[in-house]
Design brief:
Elements (H helix, E strand, L loop, with lengths): L9 E7 L5 H14 L4 E5 L5 H11 L8 H25 L3 E5 L2 H8 L7 H12 L5 E6 L2 H9 L13 H17 L4 E5 L4 H15 L7
Parallel strand pairs: 1-3, 1-4, 2-3, 4-5
Helix pairs in contact: 1-8, 2-3, 3-5, 4-5, 6-7
The protein binds adenosine-5'-diphosphate and thymidine-5'-diphosphate.
Adenosine-5'-diphosphate (ADP) binds next to helix 1, helix 6 and helix 8.
Amino acid sequence: MTTQFPRRGVFISFEGIDGSGKSTQARLLAEALEAAGYPVVLTREPGGSTGAEEIRSLVLEGDPSRWSPETEILLFTAARRDHLEKRIWPALDAGKVVVTDRFADSTRLYQGLRGKGLRDEVDQLHDMIIRTEPDITFVIDMDPAEGLSRAKGRQTSEERFEDFGEELQRKMRAGFLDLVRTHPERCILIDGGRSVEAVALDVRDRALSRLPEPADR
Ligand code: ADP
Ligand code: TYD
């Protein structure tokens, strides 16, 4: 069987609002793919490499007004570039399946839709510095109030974005649904309002149906 992907590895991202179940599902998919014989790297953004994890604490902790959306675009993009150089590109070059909890779509929406709207700036910087898109993006859809209460239930100091509240969650949910409509070739909409197990089975089946056989890689 010939691979349907242009590079040797396969790049999978999870996107969705806070508390939608991305981290849980990214981990379960990584485990399921490993069990099926694929070499997998599980990672996350912001972060995923030493330098990017340092930027993560800068950007996720502290007062909501600490950074402007413009400054955030630069910080998230700097973190993403380091993550790509140190982890994602080497793993894809080695033929691995990379599963990441958030990637560039998060910047397109969280920074692109905040304030006066900075989507053009996000896209331009992406074209200059990142130039990499996932092969498959699972967008987990979830009621904003439920997502926020799930996210708030976690004990963490990384609450800067959760402190923007339910209105931001609603805007982001609409943005993610729009993303699925405009990028049907890579985006798969997943109903996150089901049990962890039901969502995981759905995600696994859809991933396996798109991946080449592990023996090919
Ligand atoms: P995200 O990474 O999207 O913020 P998480 O995977 O961290 O979401 O999940 C947020 C919280 O909700 C966690 O406490 C997790 O255990 C719980 N959770 C995740 N998926 C479900 C689900 N399908 N049903 C109920 N609770 C869930
Ligand atoms: P994350 O740790 O994935 O939070 P959660 O598990 O609650 O979804 O991401 C933390 C926050 O960072 C989240 O509110 C979204 C925000 N974020 C951006 O604003 N832009 C980005 O490019 C990324 C990757 C995340």
